[in-house]
Predict the structure of Cd(II)/Pb(II)-responsive transcriptional regulator.
Amino acid sequence: MKIGVLAKQVGITVETIRYYESEGLLHPALRDPANNYRRYDHSHLERLIFIRRCRTLAMTHNEIKILLQARVEPDASCETINELIDEHIHHVQARMAELQILETQLIELRSQCRAAHTTRDCGILRELDHPIEESSEAQPEHSHVPGSQCRIERH
Amino acid sequence: MKIGVLAKQVGITVETIRYYESEGLLHPALRDPANNYRRYDHSHLERLIFIRRCRTLAMTHNEIKILLQARVEPDASCETINELIDEHIHHVQARMAELQILETQLIELRSQCRAAHTTRDCGILRELDHPIEESSEAQPEHSHVPGSQCRIERH
DNA sequence: TCTTGACCCTAAAGCAGCTTCAGGGTGTTT
DNA sequence: AAACACCCTGAAGCTGCTTTAGGGTCAAGA
Ligand SMILES: [Zn+2]
Ligand SMILES: [Zn+2]
Ligand SMILES: [Zn+2]
Ligand SMILES: [Zn+2]
């Protein structure tokens, strides 16, 4: 099948497929000698579905590569996989904890202004003007396995 | 004061300060005619503290710019500010909800493999091979105020 | 005085995971 | 033959910085 058909089957764009190929997630497709178009078969479809499933679970390309590697080594132990998923669950939980703290702080901030008035007297602006109070809790310096790092976005 | 002193006062790097200037968050500093070094005063310090406070609350540059604008218009209504904070709280809550769903799915996935065995028989890989089940809930197509968009990272 | 080290400057690239754009072929239909 | 859908590559854009490269400035010590 051509790239457009594959894209529709998986529910992604052709650009994303080409990007995955350039990233080494998807094996380069065979090319039609006549026009240089990429040709895909069922194994590509399956691999792409796997990749997308991992992406909707917010795994990074690095994490996915490790799983893909395990997938083609049927005789290896799946320890690695279990550990990777466990670690990734931690990534998600850690990010949620951060966001919960954020939410609390934001709601407190919001409570500083209940009636609408001029910005001169706005409690929100006033609170934002103060420096950040250190929570005095040292950052745990999370030790990631180098090569499968994931951060669940901390913009 | 010079940029290095300012950076230490605020607790960020000089590169970040220069970046904020290039982004239009911080007004360009006066330059020492002798050596072209940036010179800052107290108002820069206050503005930077404000910016950092907003950043630790995960606001985007766009959101911060709106607040900064309100800050220099003391006679305007603070309606805008309240709405922006409310919206931003929604950003955080929406992202948390996404992560909670993720966590549930990941824990379910993890439960597919309790004993270590070969990847051939790994329930995790098996489940990842299946296509994504649509939760059939149409995405709410959140209507953002154009110009203050924020996404709390959805990598 | 010369040199070392701390500090300052700019411009550009890198990170993650794509999306979008520019510029140009291919292939089928009307 | 023109229109339109589809394919190709390479590069830039997005976000919020960090890092690197390459090069001035300035104080103090040898
Ligand atoms: Zn992860
Ligand atoms: Zn207010
Ligand atoms: Zn927001
Ligand atoms: Zn297993």
About this structure: Chain A has two domains: 3-71, 78-155. Residues 78-155 of chain A form one domain.
